[in-house]
């Protein structure tokens, strides 16, 4: 048990001091209780025993409202917040959140509500949230990952040596701990980070190792919740062959292969990233594939046919031939731009497919 005392000289100048004691249990946190040297019926969601000379009713079971007790509660909040860094468990840094007061709508009585509000008001500007190293930092200096991230993805993200340290520790992500962490972040005037921001933070050093780590994490996120795929595709986490970071969206970046591309504008995954078998599997989960005629055809028509010149239409029909008609017809028929496909006419100009005719008996080929 850790016991701390704090003087009330400023609040009560007529006294030398009054004892204010917070006894914190190590281990599984339990709801706390107010003591007036003997236990009262007043409980609190701040873990531990809070002993002080409270003003109580005649049977000494209930705390009375009034400026004296309110001042004592202010001191208790200060006492608790001040000593949070001394209570951190290196094996489980997020445990510190377990001993904090619960949500405001869960307060047990007026004293618990008063203590709850004052605690978070102070903690928002003090070391109260565990960072990636497991040490407490001020919430204004930390970022909190989005909710709903699977535990193995959080652990994998945090296991990368080059990760930024100004993010909350993964042990802060249990249901009750996260509620408290989000409250501290909100009290500090910050917002919970997006999935895109969280993933991109891992590749700040722009190295192949960072990109591999982020891709593995992204694949776990998608496997756990396929609805998050759209958000993953917006994050620039794939290191390309030219050293830039690109989005892992289908048709935007490709895994290199022996296929000879017709174009020079395709973006390829960096060789050191594509050389990792598990990363290749993760890329497939996200939707990034090895380049071939089908993939190049999909990429070529991905942005639509606006302002295409003859060269772009020439390439389209070369790719159709390379991919084979069954594959190409599937790709073209599912494109939202299918009604704007053009074919070359005998005059040499490209015309809309539905405005061209096939040569036959009435109009011969010549």
Short summary of the structure?
By secondary structure, the chain is of the alpha+beta class. The protein is built from 13 helices and 11 strands.
Question: What report would you give on this structure?
Answer:
With 366 residues, the chain is an alpha+beta fold. The chain is 36% helix and 9% strand. It is built from 13 helices and 11 strands. The strands form 4 sheets. Strands 1-2-5-3-4 form a 5-stranded mixed β-sheet, covered by helices on one side. A two-stranded antiparallel sheet has the order 6-7. Strands 8-9 form a two-stranded antiparallel ribbon. A hairpin with a 5-residue loop joins strand 10 and strand 11 (350-352). Helix 4 packs antiparallel against helix 7 and helix 12 crosses helix 13 (325-333). The chain starts with a strand and ends in a 14-residue tail after the last strand. The model is unreliable at 8-12 (pLDDT under 50).
Features:
alpha+beta; elongated; five-stranded mixed sheet; two-stranded antiparallel sheet; 366 residues
Output the structural class: alpha+beta
Strand content: 5-15%
Please give the number of β-strands.
11
Helix content: 25-40%
Main sheet makeup:
5 strands, mixed
> Could you name the ranges where pLDDT drops below 50 across 5 or more consecutive residues?
8-12
Question: Over all CA atoms, what is the radius of gyration?
Answer: 31 Å
Separate helix tally? 13
